[in-house]
Specification:
about 300 residues, alpha/beta, Arc Repressor Mutant, subunit A, D-Maltodextrin-Binding Protein, domain 2, 9 strands, DNA-binding
Amino acid sequence: MSSLPPLTAVRAFEAVARHLSFTKAAAELGMTQAAVSYQIKILEERVGAPLFLRKPRQISLSETGTRLAPDVSAAFDTLRSAFATSRGQVDGLLSITSVPTFASQWLAQNLGLFQIAHPDIAVRLDSSSDLRDMVHDEFDVAIRTLPAPPGGGMVSHLLIKADFSPLLSPGLAESIGGVSKPDDLLRLPVLDPEDEWLDQWFAAAGVPGYTALGRPKSSLGLQNLLGTAAMAGRGVAMLTPGFFRDEITSGRLLQPFNLLATDGRAYYLVYPESRRNAPKIRAFRDWMISATAPLRAEQPE
């Protein structure tokens, strides 16, 4: 234990490293700026190297500080989670950030079931594709589209692979007498014609010659917008069928072929390793894995 530096100094370092500001760290810790500077000096003497590079009107982490900050931050998060768990208390608010497609096409429709099962947990949902610093940000969990499970102290759970297939309105299909083979789609208008998923699906279907040249340009980007346009008969959209199961079942959208293509990306539930035992995160994780199981069951291995 004698080799450990004073906890007050470590707390000061974690706060200054997070804010990159002695003033903001002092306000958070209820200390004077001079006191925070003194604690950092104590820690730097113990470490034997500068932890911050002091510049006019700004500071930055030194090489030593950069190596030390993630472990110190993770340690404090682990302590917070441990005390919350030992008290047997569930934080009353779960903050979720999700990519718009998953938020609109699945989560918004099903999140009420989680709240029925856990009425003591209020939920705040943010719909955004922005990358987040999940260690320091205000969100507890994130749902993101990723090419592979993330590392760097993050825990991830596969929710659904971002496989894709062409969907269109039945009326648009009937406008050319029906769609019975993949190259029939080349005779129809296509939404977001420069979408790389189109090239990949037609290649998987063995249909050469797809090109965006000569097609009206559009860029809706988000699957929920593309799905709405497809239901309106505006064109063929390359979508993840699992997100549109109700629309397909009701006949608002047609999936003419079972062939699914993939670019290797998938939707993951992500949160910091240091918070994996937080009761509210554990409750949401277990519910999400169970609730999304039917989505995964419909997809090929």
